[in-house]
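Can't paste images in this forum, so I'm doing it all in text. The chain is below; anyone willing to post the predicted structure tokens underneath?
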Amino acid sequence: MPGNLTWIDTHIHVSDIAPDGSRRPHLAQDLVAVLERSGADLRFLVSCDFPYLTRMATDPQWMWAANRMVHEVVQQAPGRLYGSCTVNPAFLEESLRCMEVCFREWGFVQLGEMLPYLMGYRFDSPEVDEVVRAAAGYQVPVQVHLGTYWLRGGDASGDGIGHIADLLAVAERVPEANYVLAHAIGCDPDPRFIPWANMYLDVLAGTFEQYPTNFWVEIRDFDSTALARTLAEVPTTRLLAGTDWTTRIGPPFQSYGTTFGVREEDNRFPPGVAAMVGFLEAAGASEEDVARIASGNARELYHLD
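Text version of the structure:
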């Protein structure tokens, strides 16, 4: 199946600056190499990564640099790479101007990832309401960070309870927007980590009489113990493949399907689309379900060909 299966990952972070500060002049080509060796018709929806993310926390000009980098990369692989616009609502006017260029001129298809914990703003805030309303006006969804696990003494990136509470508050005020619950389903297999996936499912089931049609859920880790429950409770038309794969190691970059934060040689399954399809099928997904999660839902949500 993977050989002729189109698989669109909606959550990919890229950077033309390596962790050691060196430049990556062939980022687009190196990304395409990952697509080519995946064994599937693989496509990425990409947003920026470090150091852009931390620098735009204090300097709005880095929003422009980050999104321009994404635009230039996407232009080199049309139909295989798509752009996602990252902003910092703490710089509201600059964020809105950057969004206008990204969505009207550069053809980006998503706002996000929204990373309040990293950039020092509150998602439940008037500034975020403004950028979310703007995204709805551009008819693009908003990808919202949700922590995948709780860790005693961990940082704010894992505050799943706070993240889902803020998301629900904004969604109540701006119901016209579409929301992507970033990496909601998943967790590293470290016994210290307590996954939030079941809590998110509990919140959705307890908050809404019917599943909210403007919420899409990303699956980060397809070997998550919550996958079967997710397939049973979330409409398969509202599930996306969003693995949070990054370019932090390489080039050559690690194979697609390598778990976030893990070296490829230590991955707990052979990385690739075939393994993810296998996990879906083992959790009860039908062939139609797999096709929807692989690309059908993303095509519809992001208006892709």
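The mean pLDDT is 96. The longest strand covers residues 6-14.
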